[in-house]
Specification:
Elements: E1 6-10, H1 18-25, E2 31-34, H2 42-52, E3 59-62, E4 75-81, H3 92-101, E5 110-117, H4 123-127, H5 135-148, E6 153-157, H6 165-174, E7 179-183, H7 189-196, E8 201-204, H8 206-210, H9 212-224
Parallel strand pairs: 1-2, 1-8, 2-3, 3-4, 4-5, 5-6, 6-7, 7-8
Helix pairs in contact: 5-6, 7-9
């Protein structure tokens, strides 16, 4: 995983054709994350998993619903929303998931992500009752993820809007051990390259559903940068 640079994120609550799914899985991306906020069901997750498994690309379930956890994925990412106002999104839900599913999942397959959600209009921001941090807050969260909690990933999630490359650069300067994931609003090759200058891994999600050709171009843009 430390060598990964680009990940596509697919929402099990959204439709994607077999043709477009093949294009995504065969694009050269390093992995596929299955995850979303609304209407995440076990049936939807299983359907997408079975279709992705036709290909060799690593497949990750980002756990957002306890009802949609299933074996069969290569990795399981568990978000810890650092800027949520409610402790449950930082600790309680993760504790419950481990208590219920620890016997089903291998420890080597689990990865905890320190999430910082930076778009106040995003569904995930609202769902997790987050507050919008300022620059100093974000940098402090990055420090905590890296040096206090020793999380393998700090995830800057702008969820549908393009973020601030200057802030991404400042956050990266704080991280010695945690990988920096960036997700949100990447629609063009230029944006993918700009964020990859500082982030370790670029996540592309919404663009798959709005312009598949542009989404696919981000793979080469990131890997060539």
């Amino acid at each position: 995983m430390n060598a990964w640079q680009h990940i596509f994120k697919l929402d099990p609550a959204k439709e994607i054709s077999d043709e477009h799914l093949e294009m995504v899985c065969e694009s050269g991306t390093d992995a596929i994350i299955v995850g979303g906020t609304d209407n995440i069901t076990l049936d939807g997750v299983l359907d997408l998993l079975s279709r992705i498994r036709r290909y060799t690309v690593p497949c990750i379930l980002e756990i957002s619903s306890m009802d949609a956890i299933t074996p069969g994925f290569d990795y399981y990412y568990i978000p810890m929303v650092l800027n949520s106002k409610e402790k449950k999104w930082m600790m309680d839900i993760q504790h419950q998931a481990i208590k219920e599913f620890v016997d089903m999942l291998e420890y080597s397959e689990l990865l905890f992500e320190g999430y910082c959600i930076l778009n106040k209009d995003a569904k995930a921001f609202i769902h997790t009752n987050s507050y919008l941090p300022d620059e100093d807050d974000v940098i402090a969260y990055a420090y905590m993820a890296d040096k206090v909690f020793h999380l393998p990933v700090f995830y800057m999630e702008y969820s549908g809007t393009y973020g601030d490359p200057v802030l991404v650069e400042k956050v990266k300067a704080q991280l010695e051990h945690s990988l920096l994931f960036y997700g949100g609003g990447i629609e063009t090759v230029q944006q993918a390259r700009e964020m990859k200058e500082h982030a370790d891994v670029i996540i592309v999600g919404n663009r798959i559903y709005t312009d598949i050709k542009q989404a696919l171009k981000t793979v080469k843009a990131v890997k060539d940068s």
